[in-house]
Write a structure and sequence with these properties.
The complex is a heterodimer.
Chain A (H helix, E strand, L loop, with lengths): L15 E5 L1 H11 L4 E4 L6 H12 L6 E4 L3 H13 L4 E5 L1 H16 L5 E6 L13 H4 L7 E4 L3 H16 L7 E6 L8 E5 L2 H8 L7 E4 L4 E4 L19 H30 L8 E4 L6 E5 L3 H14 L4 E6 L1 E3 L3 H8 L4 E6 L9 H10 L7 E7 L8 H17 L6 E4 L4
Parallel strand pairs in A: 2-3, 2-4, 4-5, 5-7, 6-7, 12-13, 12-15, 15-16, 16-17
Antiparallel strand pairs in A: 1-8, 6-14, 9-10, 11-13
Chain B lengths: L34 E5 L9 H5 L5 E3 L4 E3 L9 H5 L5 E5 L4
Antiparallel strand pairs in B: 1-4, 2-3
The chains are: A alpha/beta, B alpha+beta.
Chain lengths: ~425, ~100
């Protein structure tokens, strides 16, 4: 595309190279995103994000109002209040902290507040466990938030900045959760390239611009925020007469998310030289693959390594990483998976009495195909259980065997658990 | 929006974020009422106790006597409970 770029591309050598862990990468991204309010409560493995950020506040490096609240319920509530007043708001949490935010998550989404939340994925209690799985994130999947899953710390940095852009887009106006795997990313040092402050500011269009809407009783268009000059009520009683209609707005908003995520992914590419597939799915070697594995988060790195290794041995295998989980990209994933014989769906979470969350979505996505690939759900890595290459390879071998025999003996498999 | 949409509105005609498009004055909450307060003006001493206690400000003084604004009275019965001379009776909405 020969379109004149308003913002110059920043070559890698002009970017700031930092050795940081995933949490710090997020903290730096927030630092550069002109965030007005950060309200947070510490919980492992998220703590480093707000710890670093509170240092930026203490050093006077940011203009942000930092609210040290007494719980995650309050953290999200304070973000709701701040965002309703027109601020750009951020918080971060994990596991039980996210569970405590639960009711306010729904409020943030239905009031259309573009809050950004970093979820450092961790297993839920009991028994208490501080390590990575996705059961925390899956508990919020129906709350109306946009959910993005990242693979590495570089992507955590990039995606956190992108999240503000996506959330505040007038077509979206929804809160966005950026998911990064606890410890695998949050506590692991990685070289991360960051853009200069002013480039990030320009990318975001400066401070938050509040969406304008027409209000009948004021007889004019006003900013959708709490403002004594133009009084609005947020979230008052709404019964069977209008609640259903209001839910339709959230349904509609979600429809616009994929196009915005794609656009932002491309804009970021022009700026930084980095992009993640089309922003929604990140396929690898899927085109002629007989066996494709789908995966969320940091495990994708290991799966990609195994795919590469198996390809060298002549096996027709591939993988696709799901970057955007909510809204779920049904059409896009159907296009990627439709030619395969067998799909292995990896889930780092389980719905007890059902399957893994992404398995249910992928089943739905493939139902309309005349010739459907066979599907196997692999539950893995609960509570931070490692998923090393040999285990992933074992899974691929099982799937290749199924491709040969055409028979799925067990629809759900538990990968790496002792019997 | 040039012309006002038909009521009740469809979702395409509502502002985002479940924002109310009317002032609360236009929401007549009187239809929530199961019991209706009726004032016996022969007993009423115009002491204004009901006027003070009504949480909905639905007791109206017209310069001569106390009145109930049935558009907003939710029928909570506080006025009848507080009336020192028992001039207010709560009558079921189903009766005339």
């Amino acid at each position: 595309m020969a379109v004149a770029k308003q913002i110059p591309h920043v070559p890698p050598e002009k970017q700031i190279l930092m050795s940081v862990n995933g949490d710090e990468a997020v903290a730096y991204a927030v630092k550069q995103s002109l965030v007005d309010v950060v309200a947070a409560y510490p919980i492992t493995p998220q703590t480093i994000i707000v710890e670093r950020f509170s240092e930026f506040v203490a050093n006077g490096e940011v203009h942000t109002e930092f609210i040290a609240v007494e719980s995650e319920h309050s953290a999200m509530s304070a973000c709701v209040g701040a965002a309703a007043a027109g601020a750009r708001a951020f918080t971060a949490t994990a596991a039980n902290g996210l569970a405590l935010m639960w009711e306010i998550l729904y409020i943030a989404a239905s009031l259309r507040l573009p809050i950004v939340l970093a979820v450092v994925n961790r297993a839920l209690s009991a028994p208490i466990n501080i390590h990575c799985d996705h059961s925390d994130a899956m508990g919020m999947r129906d709350s109306g938030w946009v959910q993005l899953f990242v693979e590495n710390s570089q992507e955590a940095y990039d995606t956190t900045i992108q999240a503000f852009k996506i959330a505040e887009d007038p077509r979206v106006l929804l809160p966005v959760a950026v998911n990064l795997d606890g410890f695998f990313l949050s506590h692991t040092l990685e070289d991360v390239r960051m853009l200069p402050d002013e480039v990030v500011h320009e990318f975001l269009g400066g401070y938050r611009k509040v969406y304008k809407t027409y209000v009948d009783y004021l007889g004019k268009e006003v900013e959708l925020k709490l403002d004594p000059a133009n009084p609005l009520s947020f979230g008052p009683l709404d019964l069977y007469d209008y609640y259903f209609e209001h839910k339709m707005h959230q349904v509609e908003a979600m429809k616009h998310v994929p196009e915005v995520v794609k656009e932002v992914n491309e804009k970021w590419y022009e700026l930084s030289g980095r992009r993640y597939g089309d922003g929604i799915l990140v396929p690898y070697q899927t085109e002629d693959a007989d066996v494709i594995v789908t995966v969320l988060g940091s495990t994708a790195g290991t799966v990609r390594y195994v795919v590469k290794k198996l390809r060298e041995k002549g096996y027709k295998v591939g993988m696709v990483r799901i970057r955007l989980f909510r809204p779920f990209p049904f059409d896009e994933i159907r296009e990627v998976l439709k030619g395969a014989k067998v799909i292995g769906v990896m889930d780092r979470a389980i719905s007890f009495g059902s399957y893994g969350p992404s398995f249910l979505e992928i089943n739905t996505a493939l139902y309309d195909l005349k010739e459907k690939p066979l599907l196997v759900n692999y539950i893995y890595g609960l509570g931070g259980r490692d998923a090393p290459p040999d285990l992933i390879e074992k899974m691929f071998m099982e799937l290749l065997e199924i491709a040969k025999t055409g028979e799925v003996k067990e629809k759900i498999r538990f990968l790496g658990v002792r019997e | 929006m040039a012309s006002s949409p038909k009521e009740p509105r469809g979702w395409k005609e509502l502002p985002l974020a479940a924002l109310p498009y009317k002032l609360s004055l236009e929401y007549k909450t009187g239809d929530w009422r199961a019991l209706r307060p009726v004032i016996d003006h022969n007993k009423c001493t115009k002491c204004f106790t009901c006027w003070i206690y009504c949480p909905e400000m639905a007791v109206i003084w017209d310069g001569e006597k106390m009145n109930i604004n049935y558009d907003y009275c939710k029928g909570c019965g506080i006025c009848a409970h507080e009336c020192p001379v028992k001039a207010i009776t709560m009558v079921p909405e189903t009766s005339e």
